[in-house]
């Protein structure tokens, strides 16, 4: 019986992995800071992306699993800044956080307060229970950065890069507690243990990467720092009451001035660290990249359908403090790499935001790309959906990394806090919006051209033109496993096939797709190259 159940499970997973619609889309809309993506029961995606007509307009969108925007909700907000993040509370209810820009602040000449703000919304965009808070002993800048939803429906939200504070609201929306930590730094994540305790990650000046365990009331059980003095935590997964996996970087940004070259000594590693329930280090893997990582963009870790881990990070500019390319990595549960991928076109800079393993087995990630697009814009929001092996239709790059063992020690530290907050009214109204368009990044960025680093020896296609059946001849036998992808004239991926080592020719049949012009991308460890095929 157990063998039968296992077989059924493997068949189900295999079917999911076969039917993965992959895409690389740019969107005619702005996005929130965290740019969260949440999969609904029907496979559609809710995301904090809406048309931004001005600073006082924000909203959310729902898109199909193939990347098409189905509907959006935009709001004119009474001095409310853009949505920072959104999380799902129940099947038809979501919680959102941001900041409320209102009332003069004496600490900032001519400036105003930014209050922590939280509200709820259903899938139709109906908003309820919008509130803003003034933290006791707080300063003028206190925007909520992100949130998590606990098993009982309560919400924990925190300040992130905007401050070292956290607050918990009951399922009814009433404030349960608020803590402002008296330190220089920011909360990066709060996760709930199965027993109701909270795992908290903070970056604290001088203390490096800080991880703490709290009870449900926000009281510290233990608080420890690792990788001092410049380590950073980014994200975490809770495996059980007794074990967690934390990811971050071993060094913070050497200089925030993008015009000052980074020193040769600045060589940050990504790390994946497993802690027991008391904060003791079980193991720690370090990942080194060339070009260097850009740790100012927090890495994200998620569990895949089959239980492995997938991690999203940002490759940085070789010599300067600038983001460059997205990076995907799949690992085992002990941090050993299964594959690595990076993506990017020369002349464009990609920032990363959120990571979502989709129920069809594919891997989605998003962010902002900067550069001169073919339609005249100098940047756009992007959402990319890769297959289960991390492959995308275009702009894939070979990105090796070096893995090493790290041996961080923990040191208990004490953090003090000021407690409590006062609730204040807040307002918003729904407005019309400009429809959001999804555009193929392979065409808009590079017209399915060859990325930097493409191989020098190109395969030959004969005959070309043809009736749909043709032969690909490689200049030399393939020395490593590779693959090819076929796209139609609009950049839509039609299919992918592996190419084993030693292969000298490949027979391809496009007759079933009809007459037209097609693009074939060949990818190996040296890079990618593209050939056009005409089917008559």
Q: Class by helix and strand content? A: mainly beta
CATH topology call of the domain at 453-535:
Immunoglobulin-like
Total E-strand runs: 44
Oligomer: single chain
Q: Outline the low-pLDDT stretches.
A: 1-19, 447-456
Question: How far apart lie the N and C ends?
Answer: 53 Å
**Rg estimate, integer Å:** 24 Å
Average of the residue pLDDT scores: 85
Helix content range: under 10%
Strand order of the largest sheet: 28-29-30-1-37
Summarize the biggest pleated sheet.
Answer: 5 strands, antiparallel
CATH top-level class of the domain at 453-535: Mainly Beta
Any idea what the shape is? globular
Number of helical stretches of at least 4 residues? 2
CATH architecture of the domain at 453-535: Sandwich
Characterize this entry briefly:
The chain is mostly beta strands and 536 residues long.
3D architecture notes:
This protein is mostly beta strands. The chain has a domain at 453-535: Sandwich (Immunoglobulin-like), CATH 2.60.40. Helices cover 4% and strands 50% of the residues. Strands 28-29-30-1-37 form a five-stranded antiparallel sheet. A five-stranded antiparallel sheet has the order 3-4-6-7-36, with no helix packed on it. The radius of gyration is 24 Å and the shape is globular.
Descriptive terms for the model:
globular; five-stranded antiparallel beta sheet; 536 residues; disordered N terminus; Immunoglobulin-like; mainly beta
């Amino acid at each position: 019986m157990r063998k039968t159940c296992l077989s059924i499970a493997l068949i189900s997973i295999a079917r999911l992995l076969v039917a993965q619609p992959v895409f690389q889309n740019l969107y005619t809309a702005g996005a929130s800071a965290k740019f969260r993506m949440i999969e609904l029961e029907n496979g559609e995606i809710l995301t904090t992306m809406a048309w931004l007509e001005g600073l006082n307009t924000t909203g959310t969108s729902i898109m199909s699993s193939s990347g098409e925007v189905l509907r959006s909700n935009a709001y004119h907000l009474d001095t409310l800044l853009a949505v920072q993040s959104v999380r799902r509370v129940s099947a038809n209810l979501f919680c959102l956080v941001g900041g409320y820009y209102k009332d003069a602040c004496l600490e900032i000449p001519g400036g105003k307060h930014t209050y922590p703000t939280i509200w709820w919304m259903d899938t139709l965009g109906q908003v309820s229970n919008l509130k803003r808070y003034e933290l006791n002993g707080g300063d003028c800048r206190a925007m909520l950065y992100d949130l998590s939803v606990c098993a009982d429906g309560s919400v924990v939200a925190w300040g992130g890069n905007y401050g070292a504070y956290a607050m918990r609201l009951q399922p009814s929306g009433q404030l349960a507690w608020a803590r402002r930590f008296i330190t220089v730094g920011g909360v990066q994540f709060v996760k709930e243990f199965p027993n109701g305790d909270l795992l908290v990650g903070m970056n604290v000046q001088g203390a490096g990467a800080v991880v703490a365990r709290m009870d449900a009331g926000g009281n510290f059980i233990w608080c420890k720092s690792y990788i001092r003095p410049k380590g950073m935590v980014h994200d975490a997964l809770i495996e059980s009451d007794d074990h967690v996996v934390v990811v971050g970087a071993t060094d913070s940004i050497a200089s925030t001035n993008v015009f000052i070259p980074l020193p040769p000594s600045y060589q940050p590693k990504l790390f994946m660290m497993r802690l027991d329930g008391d904060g003791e280090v079980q193991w720690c893997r370090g990942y080194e990249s060339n070009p260097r990582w850009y740790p100012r963009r927090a890495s994200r870790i998620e569990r895949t359908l089959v239980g492995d881990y997938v991690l999203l990070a940002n490759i940085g500019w070789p010599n300067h403090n600038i983001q460059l390319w997205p990076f995907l990595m799949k690992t085992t549960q002990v941090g050993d790499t299964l594959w690595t991928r990076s993506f990017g076109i020369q002349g464009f800079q990609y920032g990363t935001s959120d990571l979502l393993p989709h129920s069809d087995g594919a891997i989605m990630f998003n962010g902002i790309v900067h550069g001169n697009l073919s339609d005249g814009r100098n940047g756009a929001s992007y959402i990319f959906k890769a297959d289960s092996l991390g492959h995308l239709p275009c702009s894939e790059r070979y990105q090796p990394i070096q893995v090493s063992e790290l041996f961080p020690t923990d040191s208990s530290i004490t953090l003090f806090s000021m407690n409590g907050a006062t609730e204040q009214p807040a307002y918003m109204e729904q407005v019309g919006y400009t429809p959001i368009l999804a555009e193929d990044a392979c065409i808009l960025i590079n017209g399915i051209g060859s990325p930097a680093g493409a191989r020098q020896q190109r395969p030959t296609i004969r005959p070309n033109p043809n009736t749909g059946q043709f032969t690909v001849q490689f200049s030399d036998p393939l020395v490593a496993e590779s693959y090819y992808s076929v796209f139609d004239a609009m950049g839509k991926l039609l299919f992918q096939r592996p190419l084993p080592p030693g292969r000298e020719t490949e027979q391809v049949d496009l007759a079933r797709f009809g007459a037209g012009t097609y693009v074939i991308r060949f990818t190996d460890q040296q890079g990618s190259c593209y050939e056009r095929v005409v089917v008559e």
